[in-house]
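Entries read chain and fold; for instance:
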Amino acid sequence: MKAPHLTRRRGFTLMELMVAMAITSIIVTVLVSITSSALDTWNRSRSELRASRMGKMMIDSMTRDLESLVTRRGNSNEWLSAIVDPELSKIGSSSLKSTGASRLIFFTAPTDRYDGNAGIPNLDNGGDVCCVAYTLDWKRPVQVGASKFKTFILNRKLVDPDLTFSGNAKFKPLLGVTSSTNSLDKVFTASDNYDLGTISNSANYTSENIYQFSITFQVQVTDSSGTAPIVRTVPVAMGSNGTTSFRVLGTGILTDYSGPYKDEVLSGRVTAAMISLTVLSDLAVDQIQEGKRTFPNDKAKAEFLAKNSYNFSNMVQLPGM
C-alpha cells in the first residue's frame, strides 16, 4: 500500500520579505505625507475661517456705527475724534507690537442702544444719539485664573443717549464738547469722566486677534489752483503723512494732516471712510507670547506676519456732512 503524497510548503524568501517591507514603507510614507498635508491644509483653513469671522465682526460693527454717523453743521461742537493711540507702543508683546491703532470716538444712532431695547416702552427713554468709542488693547481675553495668555482685543464702548446728552453727577455730557473747551477724546478719557480705561471691560469686547486697524477718511475738497475749480477726493489716512489727529466739527475739520491739499482739507467734506485691519491666526498669537519667540530682524518679522495674518477692508459711505 502506497503512503499518501505529502505536499511540501515553501516559506517566503529573504528577498521577498525585503521587497514587501520596501513596498509597505513606501505606502506608509505616502500616507503620512498625505495626512500631514491634509492636516496642514485643515489647520490653515480653520485659522483663516476664524480670522475671517473675527474680521467680519469688527468690520460689521464699525460699518453699522459709521453708517449711522450723526453730525450737524453750523456749530462748534465736535462730532468725531480720531487720534493715533498715544499708547500704541504698549499694544502687543515685547516681540511684536501693533503697527497701527486709533482711538475713534464719534456720535451715532446704533440699534443696540439701551442694551438692545431700543423701541421697547419703559426701557427706551426716547433718545437715539449715542457716543461710541473704539480702541485696540493687548490683554487677557478672559480674566480667569492665573493665565498670562494675552491677545489683541478690539473694544467698543457705547454710551447711551441719556448720558450722551445730559451726563449725570459723575459723567459730563459728551454732546456739546467744543474745540474751545476740550477735545472729545480728552473729555471721554478723563479719569473723572468716562475713563477710556474702562473700555477694556469684558462687556465692551468686540473681537480678538486684531493686530492692527486703520481708518482712512475720504475728504471731498475744491481745488482752485487752476483756471477752473475742480472737486477732488483726498484720502487722509491715520498714521500717514504726519496725521495723528482728525477731528470733525460743525465748522469744519481739524487735523495735522500734511499731505497734498492740506489747506483745502480743513474746509472739506468727509464722504466716506475706509476701514482696514489685520487679523492674526491663533498660532501666531500663541507664538508671540512673552518669551516664546523673538525675531532676528524686520524681514523675519514681515515673513511671519505674511504667513500668519489676514487682511480685510471695507469702504463705508458716510451720511451727508
User: Anything to note?
Assistant: The chain has a mean pLDDT of 84.
